[in-house]
Amino acid sequence: KVDPQGPAGRAGLESGDILYQINNQAIRGLKDYNRILEQIQPGQEALLLVRDGRTGEMGYLTMVVQ
Hints:
Distance between the termini: 17 Å
Number of strands: 4
Number of helices: 2
Strand content: 25-35%
Radius of gyration: 11 Å
Oligomer: single chain
Structural class: alpha+beta
């Protein structure tokens, strides 16, 4: 699920999208996701590599970490 009012939702992520990287670091599971996000300070931007779950298109989004 993606909270539309949270950082990911405001960045354009929707349920069904697949996150491959945060700041050029591969995401292989929840452990990687949490470890990488813990390294980013609140207010900093994170670069996400995402595959759109509806169209299959890959692209980059930025989100501000809270």
